[in-house]
Amino acid sequence: MGPSVSVTLLRAFHLVAQAGSFTRAARAGGVSQPTLSAQVRTLEAAHGVSLFNRHARKVTLTPLGQNLLAVTARLFAAEEEANDLLADARTLTRGQLRIAADSATHVMPLLAALRRRHAGLTFSLRIGNSSDVVDYVLAYEADIGVTAKPTSDPRLHAIPIRTDRLVLFVPAGHAWARRRQVPIRALGDADLVIRERGSITREVFEARLAEAGIRPRSLVEVQTREAVREAVIAGFGIGIVFESELGDDPAIRALEVADASLTVAEYLICREERRRLPLVRSLLDVAPHATALPGAPRLRAPRLRRRPTLRDPLPSPGERAG
After folding, report:
1. Are 21 and 59 within 8 A, CB to CB?
2. How many Å apart are CA 239 and CA 221, to the nearest integer?
3. Is 320 inside a domain boundary?
4. Contact yes or no for 110/290 (Cβ under 8 A)
5. Cβ–Cβ < 8 Å for 32, 23
6. 137 plus 188 within the same structural domain
7. Residue pair 264/165 in contact by the 8 Å Cβ criterion
8. What does the CA dihedral 60, 66, 71, 77 come to, rounded to 10 degrees?
9. Other CB atoms within 10 A of residue 265 CB
């Protein structure tokens, strides 16, 4: 049986692994850099291992260090949970909740509702695509995630909170700008502006195109919703966006896809073992009611219209209104 592991030494390792340097870790932990360096060296020497690759101004984790970081993340998350449960946290007069979301539009009503109940709370918000949000929560980099990516991962607790749908949008001067809907087959000769891989927008829309046997002429891939909008306005192609994120912009026009199911659910997720933390539980409790609050996106019910037939003329995506 090997030597017992000191929690103090593990905390020193965890601080350095998170910060990426001994200097930043010492500042974050409120200890001197020599003390922190000595604690990490003691941990490595006690077990005859190397946990860091040391460079001039930074450190990187060895493979063993990466595995140990996954363990210490769970260890100190559990310590935080124990502290919260033992403290008088039911009043929620203070504390910071770390949220990751795939859209600020979807998460702001939740945070506004929670702040109305508990004015002393603070929030940090990190925006990424839907896959990123799941990764942040699993890595303990966020307490709560708001994502449109469904998950069956047993490590995660998920509740559906709302639905949204994908719509197309074109510049105001586009030949389709006066239309309210187009059939999905009209996209067979179109240039599309679409989010990066990992985005639920892209995942859902490409699945519907594949089901219909549609291959667009070209795909222009961009990293953010803002970049999608700017690329569409500049004439690079037709954009795809969640209806609630479209906003009121006179430079663009929205269109429905008449014959494709583009409704997507949004979920609130957290680590299964952290769902009873007072801060996390408070947002889980607020979530079912938050979309009815002022400022929450109001989704229009899909209008029932006659489906396009083969006799209907196909609009040309390349045409411009003159």
Report:
1. yes
2. 10
3. no
4. yes
5. no
6. no
7. yes
8. 50
9. 15
Report the CATH number at residue 169.
3.40.190.10
- 107-123: string of b/e by CB count within 10 Å (b at 16+)? bbbbbebbeeebeebeb
For the stretch 293-310, pLDDT in tens is: 333 343 333 333 333 333
Token duo for residue 210: 């594949």
- Cα(58)–Cα(60) distance, integer angstroms: 7
Query: Same domain, yes or no, for 66 and 136?
Result: no
Secondary structure (3-state) at 289:
helix
Q: What is the CA radius of gyration of the chain?
A: 25
Decide if 17 is inside a domain. yes
Rounded to whole angstroms, the Cα distance separating 230 from 66 reads 39
Residue 189 and residue 55 share a domain? no
Using alpha carbons only, give the angle 186, 303, 301 rounded to the nearest 5 degrees.
Answer: 120
**Shared domain check, 149 and 278:** yes
Print the domain residue range for 34: 7-86
Alpha-carbon distance of 102 to 134, in angstroms, equals: 10
3-state secondary structure of 311: coil
pLDDT by 10s per residue, the chain, length 322:
566 788 999 999 999 999 999 999 998 888 999 999 999 999 999 999 999 999 888 899 999 999 999 999 989 888 877 776 666 455 566 678 899 998 888 888 888 888 888 887 888 999 988 889 999 999 888 999 999 888 889 999 999 988 889 999 999 999 999 999 999 999 988 899 988 888 888 889 999 999 999 888 888 888 888 889 999 999 999 999 888 888 788 899 999 998 888 998 889 999 998 888 888 888 888 887 765 433 334 333 333 333 333 334 444 444 433 3
The pTM of the whole model exceeds 0.85: no
- How is residue 73 written in tokens? 């993340």
